Amino acid sequence: MKRSGDKGFCCGAGGARMFMEETLGSPAGTGKRVNHERTEEALAINPDVIGTACPFCMTMMTDGVKDKEASERVQVKDIAELVLEALEHT
């Protein structure tokens, strides 16, 4: 995704955004929820899986994928799940 590495973009949950309604302080001042912004960025690259190592991101991305009606084609998984799956297939 464009915003990754040292230019990463948080899903917002670590800053307690999962408990707030977005206002003018949201991305671009649009009132869009932060997790929707981040989910849209992830979905734009057409993934089968969105991986995360943060339990807050797991919740926010899962909610975002559901809200964007992409649950049928995209899974959200913890990095530990992906490692386990890779080990099971070796």
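The record above closes out task 2.4. Task 2.5 opens with a second protein, given below.
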Amino acid sequence: MKTYLRSPFLLAAGLFLMLPSCQKEDFTSSATNDATLETRNGHGGYHHGNGIPGEVYTMSNSADGNEVIVFSRDARGWLQPYRNYATGGNGTSGGLGSQGAIIVHGHFLFVVNAGSNSITSFIINGNKLEMVQTVNSQGTMPISLTAHGDVLYVLNGGGNGNIAGFSIDPDGMLAYLEGSERPLSAAAPAPAQIEFNNWGTYLVVTEKGTNMLTVYKVDHNGIAGTPKAYPSSGITPFGFAFDNHDHVIVSEAFGGAPNASAMSSYQLSYTGSISTISGAVPTHQTAACWVAVTENGRYAYTTNFGSNNVSGYKIDPDGTLTLLNSSGVTGWTADGPLDMALSRNSQYLYILNANRDNITMFRIRYDGSLTPLGNIGNLPASAVGLAAR
């Protein structure tokens, strides 16, 4: 049995509880990394793609001053370090146990400062970022963000937890939407992620502690309504993403039990109710947490924090899930895979590895299989969150 360098914890009601949340806890790493490409199992991944260059973003989450860390991405999917940008806020120097701590929305980048209860907005200008503003998150310990049109919502995971909305002006300035703050389904339910559906009419929040998916109807002014909670098909719902048909694809860590993780799919109806399509389809791996769905809606991936790999699923038009590989292993990562991000057009998949402080790079093939491109390292041990374009 392997011993992982960073065991999952979450912060609830002001105390650390021994519940799995797929986050970093012990920041002692046995790896020595540099900013060079590595390969795994002899696969160099020298595939000449015809993609469009872009960027990949993570954040230091340092309690002494949070920074956004920018990597430039070439047309073949390979990354190189570019530079760091201060957010004007502080991180926690610990895991957040969440998905969506840093997001790209059009030509803006938004990031949480969990240690100073704030959100920072940036304008993206090529490889460069220009900081616009840092605002109060209207709660404690912001851990996840989502945006649709000119509205942004934050999930605050500290204290009892809550969500709050902000308007986004054309310059990236954020203004709190009065009356948008809402509670979660219960006090301190260990939330993991908030996300708008494709139409911006509903918000969904996963709650690890209650095993609930909580839904909020959003009116034409961007104001969220009363929360309605629906039970998760599997235990410890964590990361999720919507496919093209508004199906909700959710990972389930099953308390971190060995080889017990799963992925479920749900139908979000026009009335906001949630019903199960595929319930708890096993990964046969450990601690499935973060989720990404390709732009065409055909494939979903989840990182298995406890078994150092990624599982891929085919998504049928009706939302039914089928494992791409019977073993549940679609690709190998480095130790402790955390957040995932897809490049534009979903040509490349990037995974942040907690216990090696690096990023694994994959090219996504037409059938959903993954071609490894190597790892790039030398990230801060506290790094969390991943976004790409």
